[in-house]
UniProtKB/TrEMBL annotation:
Start and end residues of each N-acetyltransferase domain: 1-109
Organism listed in the record: Vibrio artabrorum
UniProt cross-references to InterPro entries, sorted A to Z: Acyl_CoA_acyltransferase, Citrate_lyase_ligase, GNAT_dom
Record-given protein name: GNAT family N-acetyltransferase
Taxonomic superkingdom: Bacteria
PANTHER family assigned to the protein according to its UniProt record, in alphabetical order: [CITRATE [PRO-3S]-LYASE] LIGASE
Its EC number(s): 2.3.1.-
This protein's UniProt keywords: Acyltransferase, Transferase
A single MF term (Gene Ontology): acyltransferase activity
EC primary class: transferase
Amino acid sequence: MNIAITNAQSIINLDDIKELLDTQGLRYEGDAEYFCTAHREDNELVGCVALVGNIVKYFAIKEAFKGEGLSRSMVTEILLTAHQLGRKSLSIFTTPDKVTIFESMGFTL
């Protein structure tokens, strides 16, 4: 699995991200600064999460790839990016079914 941080202004697979978000009931609002994406070796997008100011947002993973540690890997990368940008206090914008994922990473409701 390839995990990478990309500036949202230069991301080339935005349509793939929008499609993945749509499968999770999420809609991209064009406000992301950075995306962390996970791709298979054949370049298939299987997960993403974004940084929007001090908010972690647009978290999605294809069903077939859940439980493989992608959540923690992608969130860690986006948190490192936020830290490098001097953003020390972050909020998470997510759906209720994903709250336990973030709580398992040390976030509180």
